[in-house]
Amino acid sequence: MHNELCQLAVKWLQRPQSQGGPGCTVAVSEVRTGWNGEVPDAIGFRASGDFSDGSVVVEVKVSRADFLVDAKKPHRQAGGIGTWRYYLCPEGLIQPDELPAGWGLLWVNRRGHIKPMAGPALYAKGHYQIYHDTLAAWCQPVEAARERFLLVKLFHRIGDAEMLNQTLKSAYAEQARLVNKVNIMQAERDELRRELNRQRLELRQSTN
Fold this sequence. Notes:
alpha/beta, 16% strand, 208 residues
């Protein structure tokens, strides 16, 4: 059950703001933030150039005991990762008034639907100014070095970064070449149509 909820958390992190999610560009589950210490159940990063950019951590809890023990972890006492932080649990397992300061809450019902119960996610859909203000109020200081470690390790899993970079550059160049070719062909088509219409008009005039 824990793994299933982690995957739901990743999908929620990727959900656009228009659909009530954080709209993270990148979201993954259970990646280390160092050789020891915090391993978030799910974390996403948003980089769109606006006030909502940052990291969002989701901690999955499937039992009361797990939730109560979580508060005693060193990275919960001081520091930690996640510009914004949420607990995700089966519906009713954790109540909003039990949350640590600055933490949101997501409930998952039996059908696998996620319902925000506390935090900025309550206002992500259709409440722009309230959402903006709530994000600012719930923003947490983060251990940037650990987030950087996580991102580097994640990027490393992709493979040779420079090879990927060159492949993408070649693909973009080929796309631009093809777009230019299509534009030229469309211009030639339009010119041929104009010439065909001109000749048709001349033919009609000559037969009258």
